[in-house]
Amino acid sequence: MKDKSKKHSRIISLPAELWSSRKLIWKLAKNDFKNRYAGSYMGRVWAFTQPVVTVLLYWFVFGHVMGKDKLETVAAGVTAPYVLWLTAGLVPWFYFTETINNGTTSLLEYSYLVKKVVFKISIIPIVKLIAASFIHMFFVTFMLVVYFCYGFTPSIYLIQLLYYSFCMFMFVLALSYTTCSLVIFFRDLTQIIGIFLQVGMWATPILWNITLVSEKLQFVLKLNPVFYIVNGYRDAMFSGKWFWQDMASTAYFWIVTIVLFLIGSTIFRRLKVHFADVL
């Protein structure tokens, strides 16, 4: 009985620790975002420049050079400009790449805090994720401006963008506790993640429609939890579909996320006693 109680307390210890430190987490996240571009002339403007330039580049290449700026069926008979459909996939994908990279290297970046005995180092990954979320909120706003400029009207379904952003945040947080722990002992992990991200952009998919492949391959691609989020963004904007209407995919996503969080928190808890020695 005592073993079960002890195991249960270990499972809830990390979420409880994060909640009790919420004010400190918010303060550190704001400082992290402010300090990231502190030494440059344009400051925080650079944080928003890259996503905007990237979208404009895709719009030029696919919309004009390749001639794909035409109506493409998305779902349920609803059509949308290809570039806008593409942007709806790029927004969550850029959020994913930014947060997973920042979360993975968070302990390396804040090594001076890791070496402090009294500091709760478990809050460092979530600090980096929240800081990256500020850029994501701007990018979502930019996407919606383009969405309305194309003639789409506001819809109640758009509120699901908050839900799917939260899904991405929790999924990456679950992954980050594993990656930020392992990268301290295996620095090549950052390069491996970079390769997976390159492959993942095509496997999610972002640039092409999943209906172009066979149903068997579609099933395999849909096992990727990021697909659930990317597809959710597009459903919220174009299909008029609530996330609970696909309860199987929703349940699968949250089961995977919870399992990854339990695995990550266990790895983090067992390895953190060695972090200061290696760093």
How would you portray this structure in words?
With 279 residues, this protein is mainly alpha-helical. The protein has one domain (36-278). The protein is 73% helix and 3% strand. The chain contains twelve helices and two strands; from the N terminus they run αααββααααααααα. The protein has helices at residues 2-20, 22-35, 45-65, 82-104, 106-109, 111-114, 124-149, 160-182, 189-203, 215-221, 225-239, 247-278; strands at residues 71-75, 78-81. Strands 1-2 form a two-stranded antiparallel ribbon. Helix 3 packs antiparallel against helix 4, helix 4 (82-104) runs antiparallel to helix 11 and helix 7 (124-149) packs antiparallel against helix 8. It is globular and about 55 Å long. The model has no long low-confidence stretch (mean pLDDT 84).
List the helices and strands and how they pair.
Layout: H1 2-20, H2 22-35, H3 45-65, E1 71-75, E2 78-81, H4 82-104, H5 106-109, H6 111-114, H7 124-149, H8 160-182, H9 189-203, H10 215-221, H11 225-239, H12 247-278
Antiparallel strand pairs: 1-2
Helix pairs in contact: 2-7, 3-4, 3-7, 4-7, 4-8, 4-9, 4-11, 7-8, 8-11, 8-12
